[in-house]
Design brief:
The protein is mainly α. Helix content is about 50%, strand content about 10%.
């Protein structure tokens, strides 16, 4: 399993404020997780990473083999297998249970992984975009308002 950790100070501060007010982050983390599942799945439609960069096209060999040039979308398996899970009281994990998810996220070369039929470019699909950050902060703010009432 591969891990990408988000350490955004603004989000951390907002979550700390919510924890101090409500004493429970599970509801907000669950809502953020649901949002991030959908946001991540949408990347497969736009063929872009969280940074907004378009994924590298399939190689000519892959295009010839598969008959199309839409990376990570041939069967839709990876894009449909995005899950969120609460770990403890203050950790949210978003990822995929698909065996090849890390290879698609980070890429890999045949020299590193001799079982590959060719080099695979990184096509990041996990992570938080600028829009995601804004939405996460909005979700936290709504929970803060609810906790204050």
């Amino acid at each position: 399993m591969a891990t990408i950790e988000l350490n955004d100070e603004e989000i951390r501060r907002a979550l700390s404020n919510l924890l101090a007010t409500s004493g429970n982050l599970n509801p907000v983390l669950s809502e953020i997780g649901e949002y991030l599942i959908e946001s991540t799945k949408q990347r497969f439609g736009s063929l872009t990473g969280p940074d907004g960069e378009r994924w590298e096209d399939n190689s000519p060999v892959t295009v010839e083999r598969k008959g199309r040039n839409q990376p990570l979308t041939e069967h839709g398996s990876l894009g449909e297998q995005i899950h969120a899970q609460l770990l403890g009281n203050n950790t949210l994990a978003v990822g995929s249970s698909m065996e090849y998810a890390a290879m698609q996220q980070f890429g890999g070369s045949r020299s590193e992984f001799p079982n590959l039929w060719g080099d695979i470019p990184a096509r990041p699909f996990l992570g938080i975009s600028g829009d995601d950050k804004t939405k996460i902060l909005d979700i936290i703010a709504a929970h803060l308002r609810d906790a204050a009432n």
